[in-house]
Protein: EF-hand domain-containing protein
Amino acid sequence: MSSKMRSDTHFERVLSYFDENGDGKVSPSELRHRVSMMGGELLQKEAEMAIEALDSDGDGFLSLEDLVVLMEGGREEEKLEDLRDAFEMYDTKRCGFITSKSLKKMFRRMGDSKSIDECRFMINQFDLNEDGMLSFHEFTIMMH
Structure:
């Protein structure tokens, strides 16, 4: 079974939890009811606004596709945050770039000795603007 199939099944289970009448869509009142069952509180207007913000086809309901976008979007933000944290570990001077010197220092901290030339070579592999440093954007490309 592929991970895509597993994740679609997961999203379908989440949808069916909120979709009390089984029509394949989540209405504002269904959203409110389920949130209250989980111990939260959501006003009708808040539920309507939440669904309106996520509703891709304008029918006033959340579909499976809307739910997938919502849940996958959160994962993407988490990935970006993790990449930012990793980038900051290498950006030892907090200058917004990874230099060959800061890369060498990070390798040394991890118990791995690299020459400055080896570090320059690694950076050059992903240095799109050829300035000798990695920006966060270049770093994210390297990590994907």
Notes: The first helix runs from residue 3 to 18.
